[in-house]
Write a structure and sequence with these properties.
43% of the residues lie in helices and 25% in strands. It contains 8 helices and 14 strands.
């Protein structure tokens, strides 16, 4: 998952980031309203974990901005505000869920994962595309009866391709989704080709059809 955490409390922010990155997610942070707006204008996320009380603005305004921009990023509000009015306002503005502080990190992860599944795969833990089956809870991939041993980046690539099947995906979009804003330090995307080449090779060796189509000068399309 690619996550943006909008949270000004340093200790909580650090603990959430550590927990999610250990689980293999790409996590970016925004410590205030201004940096959060900059991030959502530039990047797309599987889920935005949004605190409402920020030092330079209100998280509700970020929800309004997302709605105005017609963004489809999932949003989970985390807030010490526990009134029904705040919950209803957030949900009516487009948030997918609302979690009151304090909370267990395991519950936060479960709710974020549920949002991502609903957005991308109709709530299913099992992703099926032709002969490819992916169990997202076990992070296990099979082609027919054959298990495939994928690296974390290869697995993430495959899930991202299936979630965006039949769409043309640019190299920069792939890089930004899988590496986050760290990719800003890179001046080329040659490593994307290497990961895709390795993923394609493993799929073909397991008896899979070749669904990864190169779109010359643009990027890739995953399609039957």
């Amino acid at each position: 998952m690619k996550i943006l955490l909008v949270e000004d409390e340093a200790a909580l922010r650090d603990s959430i980031i550590a927990y999610f990155t250990e689980e293999g997610s790409i996590c970016e942070t925004a410590e205030n309203y201004a940096s959060a707006l900059t991030k959502i204008n530039i990047y797309n996320y599987d889920c935005i974990v949004l605190d409402l009380t920020l030092p330079d603005g209100d998280g509700m305004e970020i929800l309004r901005k997302l709605k105005q921009m017609h963004k489809t990023d999932g949003v989970l509000i985390i807030s010490a505000r526990h009134s029904l009015d705040d919950k209803l306002s957030g949900l009516n503005l487009g948030a997918d869920d609302y979690l009151v502080k304090p909370f267990h990190l395991s519950e936060l992860k479960a709710r974020v994962s549920a949002i991502v599944r609903r957005k991308s795969f109709d709530g299913n833990n099992l992703i099926v595309f032709q002969e490819i089956n992916i169990d997202t809870l076990a992070m296990r991939t099979t082609v027919g009866q054959n298990n495939i041993n994928l690296t974390k980046k290869e697995y993430d690539l495959l899930v991202y391709f299936i979630a965006n099947q039949r769409k043309v995906i640019t190299k920069s979009a792939l890089a930004e989704h899988l590496w986050g804003d760290e990719i800003d330090l890179s001046d080329h995307f040659d490593f994307i080709y290497t990961h895709i080449k390795n993923l394609r090779k493993k799929l073909l060796e397991a008896g899979c059809n070749d669904y990864i189509k190169s779109m010359y000068g643009v990027g890739y399309k995953f399609s039957s």
